[in-house]
Amino acid sequence: MHRSHHYIASLFLTAALAAPMSIMATPVPQEAGVQVRVYDKDHKDYHNWDGNENRAWNQYLTENHRDAHEYSKANKKEQSQYWNWRHAHPDDRDHDKH
After folding, report:
1. Rounded to an integer, what distance in angstroms lies between the CA atom of residue 60 and that of residue 89?
2. pTM of the model
3. Using CB atoms within 10 A of its CB, is residue 20 exposed (0-12), middle (13-18) or buried (19+)?
4. DSSP string across 15-80
5. Angstrom distance (rounded) from CA 96 to CA 98
6. Which residues contact 60 (CB under 8 A, 6 or more apart)?
7. For the segment 4-53, what is each residue's pLDDT rounded down to a tens digit?
8. Nearest to residue 42, comparing CAs of 74, 85, 73, 71?
9. Please, are residues 40 and 47 in contact by the beta-carbon 8 Å criterion?
């Protein structure tokens, strides 16, 4: 009986020592976030909606004297007007793509 206690104690000790190692070895998901792609039907292309696009949207709203709101809340006409504006105001990185 005394021997079984040593066996059980050694199992617990092994588990206690191995647990932190298995936690450290577990892969952590990357902070990829959710990638949102928006289709521009007038220009027949897709745009990745990221922080840069969000800044451009806010600039568009400011330049056109419109109240701040999310692109997803805009009606189809305003979204279309935005993409027309956006194609006329490409980013420096957009020039590299063409």
Report:
1. 9
2. 0.60
3. exposed
4. HHHHHHHHHHHSPPPP-----EEEEETTTTEEEEESHHHHHHHHHHHHHTT-----GGGS-HHHHH
5. 6
6. 66, 82, 85, 86, 89
7. 666 676 656 566 666 555 455 555 555 566 689 999 999 999 999 999 99
8. 85
9. yes
Q: Dihedral through CA 94, CA 36, CA 72, CA 43, nearest 10?
A: 40
Residue matched to tokens 């952590």: 28
Contact 46, 39 (CB under 8 A): yes
Q: Which helix (H) or strand (E) holds 6?
A: helix 2-25
- Continuous segment of H or E residues that includes residue 96: helix 92-97
CA 47 from centre of chain: 14
Task: Enter the tokens of residue 94.
Answer: 């957009």
Nearest alpha carbon to residue 98 among 61, 41, 78, 90: 90
